[in-house]
């Protein structure tokens, strides 16, 4: 319920203000509007399927000349346009209808029921280079047609209001998704979950703003109920708390989107490069008995149970007179500093003492590696005891037993990169750590997935603090805080169009999308 004295007065108030062009005008221009930019008069076309030879290629057309192109190239008269969204097998010709280029499917999507909201056509043709080139050339010869730029189809869909900006980003992420969990997160964002969350906050903020504005204008005439501002206070407090909770996500969504940074570190010759090679199942890094073999960072991308991991092998940590090796060690420490998860590799031959001494040795290794971090995070690392094959069986079992019992250490895994002994258990532990770092993309509230979202949301929270700061001293400034908060939210969903943001987002798409 809008807590005004009389609904009639409220309507009158909004009406007079509309004429004065203040409240609703401001709201509409900054937060409510359809995304800026009108549909382009050009008709665009592009190969939308992947490049290179393939079974079927899809060429997409969007814009006012789509029907003309379809008629010319599929031998159709005006009355015989195919039924909407139904595939029709046709001979596909050049634009003059003289030479047959291929035989394939054509689909007609009349506006507004298409991806872009414009008249659109798809040609499903054979995926040979010559066929594709000929069809694209024929389309280029139809008046009013030009090749699409990267992301232009999606940009048109956005401009037609078919997708919000977070959905557009979700679509981009879906195209780039390499693992199962990334696909799930992207699909959820594309379906609008995240956008709806922000829209919902926007609606609540708009109500707050309307109330504050009305209070500023009409409270002196005693047309507004007492308590209107108190309600705004409560809403702002709730929203701020909700946003802060949403921001306190330990970057899980962003991490899942870009990959978990897992760094292998430890003393020289512990078998770090061997571990990298074992995990990626190819000789990516040089392995040798010479201490100080690795200097450069060796990176490889892995799919660990559906989660994306960027695994880095680093130089063994030791003091060295060699300048090149010292640079390698510096880089290794830098990587550990940035790591989401560190695998501290230790040669288990160093642990052949009693259990307490083994724990002490492990603590030393751990501290040596994690000293690179500003605040050493033992919960962000795993201890990997390598070369278990070199231990006599009874020693191996004893060490394994002892390590399962010790407390105060990160999870310990005993493995052999030579025999792969213990590898499955290690992978299970690694998977569980990576999963914790990324969270479950489908459960709970949707998570933000980009630094861009975070930055705008932080601005939004700061703007709400401005409301609180000025609430009792200067209501106009307080209202400005709510308005700024709305603008920041609008930047995330694309309701407030900032061309430079749009350019960056759409350039991430490929041509044809
Ligand atoms: N027996 C045995 N030897 C191993 C195992 N893993 C690695 N090695 C050997 O240990 C030596 C060092 O291995 P690397 O993988 O090069 O060790 P690293 O930690 O990358 O060494 P640096 O790059 O020099 O710091 C090589 O001779 C490997 O063959 C293992 O599980 N068992
Ligand atoms: K080595
Ligand atoms: Mg190495």
Fraction of residues in β-strands: 15-25%
Helix content: 40-55%
Radius of gyration: 30 Å
Uncertain runs = 1-39
- CATH superfamily grouping of the largest domain: P-loop containing nucleotide triphosphate hydrolases
H/E element sequence: HHEEHEEEHEHHHHHHEHEEHEHEHEHHHH
Structural class: alpha/beta
Work out the number of β strands. 12
- The number of helical elements comes to 18
In terms of topology, how is this protein built?
Layout: H1 7-20, H2 23-32, E1 43-47, E2 54-62, H3 66-74, E3 88-93, E4 100-109, E5 120-127, H4 129-140, E6 145-147, H5 152-159, H6 165-176, H7 180-190, H8 193-218, H9 228-247, H10 252-258, E7 260-266, H11 272-280, E8 298-304, E9 307-313, H12 323-338, E10 341-347, H13 355-370, E11 381-386, H14 393-405, E12 412-414, H15 423-438, H16 451-470, H17 475-493, H18 499-507
Parallel strand pairs: 1-6, 7-9, 7-10, 10-11, 11-12
Antiparallel strand pairs: 1-2, 2-5, 3-4, 4-5, 8-9
Helix pairs in contact: 2-8, 2-17, 6-7, 8-9, 8-17, 9-16, 16-17
The structure holds guanosine-5'-triphosphate, potassium ion (K) and magnesium ion (MG).
Residues 268-274, 287-289, 291-294, 316, 386-387, 389-390, 416-418 line the site of guanosine-5'-triphosphate.
